[in-house]
Write a structure and sequence with these properties.
Number of strands: 3
Helix content: 25-40%
Number of helices: 2
Strand content: 15-25%
Largest sheet: 3 strands, antiparallel
Shape: elongated
Strand order of the largest sheet: 1-2-3
Radius of gyration: 19 Å
Order of helices and strands: EEEHH
Structural class: alpha+beta
């Protein structure tokens, strides 16, 4: 069993990035914030497991901060059609 690391991201601006695999290292999940940088080196299969866990969690909750992108697109299309008609 390894060591656990905890960082509370809830009140911080964070940047998340996946750095591609290169000759010297595996793909890297990088989390940056005022706490510093956490890098997780993982095989693509492990990154897929992380993605699946996050997607499963987010799909299981209502996420009111995330607008429905299709509804926004439909509204913009309808608005432009109405402007062309007028």
């Amino acid at each position: 069993m390894g060591t656990a690391y905890s960082v509370d991201l809830s009140n911080q601006h964070t940047e998340v990035e996946v750095l591609p695999e290169n000759h010297y290292s595996l793909p890297t999940l990088s989390l940056r914030g005022s706490f510093g940088t956490i890098q997780i080196f993982a095989a693509n299969e492990q990154l897929a497991e992380i993605e699946y866990a996050l997607r499963t969690h987010l799909n299981g909750i209502r996420y009111p901060e995330t607008p429905d992108q299709q509804a926004i697109l439909n509204h913009e299309i309808n608005q432009s059609i109405e402007e062309e008609i007028a």
